[in-house]
């Protein structure tokens, strides 16, 4: 099964499809169990680059890649023909408006299957003008056709060399339109396509500058179903590593919507809040949201390691900024909670807990 997946989805150590991809400080991605076994054996160099690692080594979850792998497996395909179809023939079947719907659906299925297993064909299609034919299907009012076209765009976007070219071809505008007005599962897939494209820094700038992109994601985060809200939060997290996009998200009143989602158990919303807390305007919005501190405390007590990391990051930003928030945090026993987290197995949790305790101690000394 792994042979049908792009090589970038496979762990360089185990050669299996990654279930929990993490990034080393060297910039290379591995599956967490494999690299952890490498580190547990006493190695302190990157298995690929041989560069020395920090001690203790830092393993950063690669959420964008994990989301791509997850969404890559969602499409079901018909049984393959005995002879592989010609990709250009399949593309031509998408062009005439009068082509039967079933023929277009079948062509998109076969193109997706071919592109999944052959990176060379992916790149050739992305560079051959086929994208415009696929975008015509994204415009369709038929939900099945639109969704399959978006899945094909997602597959074409897997190669970094194709990501900029896809943006130049006008993919972002069509995908954002599907994000806002798509049918069926199209809105969730559209968000995932944006996440894939935004892996490149230059595309973060381009996507964020589209007038409807971030507003569309904020709307999906507010009104979407569970999968749509998770994908929207993932895309926002990827985009908001670029400072201007943080400002755009804040201007679209994303903070209270993120807090509402965090209160509903969507930890990815806490991660986005951790990024936005770097901005003064976002901190003001957070402080004004009643009950936000209780939500962060709940994450500290019962959340995943990543959720705890970003809850601590958010708390450090807020309590350094607002004395009122700092005093409330002390009253709620956050000093004692963080003291326990200093013994956590996760290095980033320990580090962020230490930073937050230093913020709290600065006030305790003055009280």
UniProtKB/TrEMBL annotation:
Pfam families: ARM_PUB (PF25598), U-box (PF04564)
Catalysed reactions listed for this entry: S-ubiquitinyl-[E2 ubiquitin-conjugating enzyme]-L-cysteine + [acceptor protein]-L-lysine = [E2 ubiquitin-conjugating enzyme]-L-cysteine + N(6)-ubiquitinyl-[acceptor protein]-L-lysine
Any GO BP annotation: protein ubiquitination
CDD domains referenced in this protein's UniProt entry, alphabetically: RING-Ubox_PUB
Lineage top rank: taxon: Eukaryota
Keywords from the UniProt entry: Transferase, Ubl conjugation pathway
EC number, UniProt record: 2.3.2.27
Pathway(s) of this molecule: Protein modification; protein ubiquitination
GO MF: ubiquitin protein ligase activity
Location of the U-box domain: 4-79
Gene3D superfamilies with a match to the protein in the record: Leucine-rich Repeat Variant, Zinc/RING finger domain, C3HC4 (zinc finger)
Protein name: RING-type E3 ubiquitin transferase
Organism: Sesamum alatum
